[in-house]
Design goal:
With 650 residues, this protein is of the alpha+beta class. The protein has 22 helices and 21 strands.
Length: 650
Amino acid sequence: MIDHLLEDELLDAVRSARPAVLEEELSPAGAQAQAVLDRVHASRRRPDRSVFRRGMGVAPVLLAVGATLVVVAVAIVTLRPHTPAGAGRSTGIRGEILDRNGEVLAKSSTHEVTYLQIIQSDLPRTRSARAAELEELSRALKVQLQPRLARSATAMTSLSGLDITPAAGNYVARHERRFPGVEIARNRVRAYPQNALAAQVLGTVGPFTARGSGDHVVATTAAVGQSGLEGYYNSVLRSGDTLKTTLDVALQRVGQRALQHAIDANYPSNGGAFVALDPENGQVYAMGSLPTYNANVFSRPIPTMLMRRLFSPSSGDPLVNRATQSATPIGSTFTPITALAALESGTWSVGDTFDDTGQFCTQEQCRHNSGHAVDGALDLANALKISSNDFFYNLGALTGSARPAGALDAWARVFGIGQRTGVDLPGESAGTLPTPAWRAQRNQLEAECDAAIGPYAGRPKHPPGGCGIADGTKRPWSVGDNESLAAGQGDVQVTPLQLAVIYAAIANGGTIVTPHLGLAIERPNGSVLRPIAPAPTRHPKLDPLDLNAVRTGLRAAASQPGGTSDDVFGSFPEQVYGATGTAQITGHQDDAWYAGFVPASATSKPIVVVVTVQQGGFGAHAAAPVARQILSQWFFGHPGPWITGTSRTI
């Protein structure tokens, strides 16, 4: 029987693979996790009926991750309709995944795991004959199968987390006539030498699972990519070819360690993400999401109850790639979009000024700067430098519209807000661009839900606003919505990767690049079969003077006294352009953001870095220091000192 102590040990071992100590502790932690997992499997091979009484045998595990359904394939013994021998299987070795310098990120190890499959249509037809076969099979495998599999000739039943010894597999194969409907298969174990490094980006591999006729689950033991790069490039990897990626292992390691440090240092922070990419071509140098997990935990089947403990929302949803699948408000890192929308639409000019008295009022309400700061007369560049909320509330009121096509909405859409970037990862979130049309649609859904009509027919009715779809109200679009959008607050939802693409466009002169992690498809001998270089998404035409004004403000923010991140980047040897963000989220502490770049005009190694620290508070305090360490590693080969910013702007 698997006792709770073993499960707790594995849980601790997997969680101990913390990015903050990757170089010193990850390999031992990974080995510890595998050792405990081996003990779990050894205990499960004992003929103990309590394993089944504890309810650990269920169908292939399906975990809902954000808006993405990730299939974590650990079902090994499966009752399924008959398929031709070998159907859906790949007998070759799955290809490797490498970083840009040839470091191995994923490979098929020399170790094989033996699996057993039960084919429903080939089992004996009578209940007694079926029971007799399963009883003999149980004795051969030293695992009690009959309580689970002898219940019905047609019910779909499966066991989760069961593998068998090679000797047992050989015995069954030698006596196949005594076990009709039973198949033996072997697969090489997938190994991840970097342990928890870029785990969500690499993804998971497991048996193919599909739903066939009559709602029967069809499962095979073929190794199939289920998420991440393993899923997106599954056909390439299954053919045995190598996927060379744009990732840089050293940069990835420093990013994860720095992000973990920021989370630990800013209670109650509980997660975050970062992205580093080339603004000229969209190559992703690093992409991390915390909390994470040791990817090798999937090298062997995992008991279902333990799966739920490790990867549930209460454990921080570590399977979610927060860089691409988690979209939230982004605070003042949004303001360059607002600035360009105002300039390009002719609503504002580079030389225009706004008198920031410490508040901005409309007929609806008055809003204030953080700390009620009074900044006086500001042009656009200086407003970006100090992140004047009042300045951008004013631009939001000027560029927004009660109609569906205001300048702010239009330019936010041009830069990709509310749209997927096209990155080569499955499950990317499109985020949300709130507009008058979007608000009207939400109001309609609210009304239908409250009245239990339309798509909600047959469900309980609610009092007006009771469904909470439209913020609990049915209010129309307002000037206040424009103000919130202009400052990156309210209903806008953006992923870190989307924000990185936007800042890449500011850095490169206006090109919306297509971010990508694949660099080339190679043969196992290293010869290139096909380079991967997706074309840019679009080339919006931006006035060079307008773009220069925005860049001037972002450079001043990172390099001049009074700039929001000057105390973090003022002494940095490279020319950093950037903005802090503090996103206000109802119900918990503010999220910290930083978005910045070093452009090609200032270096031969241009780079964009975006960091978010969930519930980290102010962007300068929690997120900017992480970005600095990533940039330091990129340019100088080491993370450098940890420097915390003091700006309290939002």
